[in-house]
Amino acid sequence: MEIYINGKFYEKSQAKISVFDHGLLYGDGVFEGIRSYNRMVFKLKEHIERLFESAKSIMLEIPLTQGEIMKAVINTLKENKLKDGYIRLIVTRGEGDLGLDPRKCRGNATVIIITDKIALYPKELYREGLKIITVPTLRNLPEALNPQIKSLNYLNNILAKIEAVYAGFDEAIMLDSLGYVAECTGDNIFIVKRNHLYTPPQCMGTLRGITRDTVLEIARKDKISAHEHVITRHEVYISDECFLTGTAAEIIPVVMVDGRVIGTGKPGKVTLKLMKDFKELTKKEGTKY
Ligand code: PMP
User: Fold this and answer.
1) Is the CB–ligand 1 distance for residue 186 below 6 Å?
2) Whose CA is closest to atom 9 on ligand 1?
3) What is the domain-level CATH number for residue 89?
């Protein structure tokens, strides 16, 4: 496996960065998870744009242009001869001293690209659906650390994940400070009620997921009415269908939330249609390499 660090490729065992890197010391950096299908990178431009937006918000200067980063991603996939892959693109603040001050890292930002294979959930869960729970850890308040910033500090989500795993579940719903549904630990959430699609708006402390945007785009084309709307747990419990979206998970049905069976207890027809259309889109759209 060849890993890209600041313009050079290193074998996995040799791919190392400084212990003084503020990405390690403070989670000071930004990242993206991207997918490629059949030698095409899906929504590459959108991911790179979000990376630059996250970086701008934390005043992290990325040492490459958007075009150069796209080329580096493509070159890393080629170097690893990956036809279908998962790409982890990371930009850290770089090496500094033990203090917080990012000025000490000036000019040291580290760009890392790791490409690998990924299977987040076993195949049968896509047929049968996930069972999830709500956990006590709230999603970060947008006023404190905006979830729109896809930063290397994922402790908020990790705490929620620990609570889910401890209770015997793979994924969890995180609420916002008012008790409304925000998103899951690594995915966005949708519900379907009477053929209408609902997902929480960004102001609820929801990452503007690229898969989420893609689902909204597909829904528009399929003439499914879709709404970005406040969602309560009650509305999730009484929904006809529920599913999660994310680059790694794609679209995965949810059939039980906090012990309540969703709809018929099987993946619903709107979910299955969106899954099918999403799969088709990944086959025909993307940046070729
Ligand atoms: N929410 C969180 C907290 C995530 O980490 C992710 C995965 N990046 C998502 C939602 C889904 O976003 P995307 O569809 O862009 O992968």
Assistant:
1) yes
2) 187
3) 3.30.470.10
Given a cut of 90, whether residue 156 has pLDDT beyond it is yes
Regarding whether 255 and 161 lie in a shared domain, the answer is: yes
* CATH number for 144: 3.20.10.10
Total length of the chain: 289
- Residue 89 is part of which domain span? 2-116
Picking from 121, 80, 117, 95, the residue whose alpha carbon sits closest to that of residue 29 is 95
Ligand 1 pocket member 247 (CB < 6 A): yes
Q: Where a domain ends, among 74, 92, 116? A: 116
Cβ distance 247 to 262 under 8 Å? no
Residue 118's pLDDT is 83
Question: pLDDT of 84-130, one tens digit each?
Answer: 999 999 999 999 999 999 999 999 999 999 999 987 899 999 999 99
**Spacing, Cα 99 to ligand 1 middle (Å):** 30
289 lies in some domain: no
For residue 121, what are the CA distances in angstroms to 169, 170, 258? 12, 9, 20
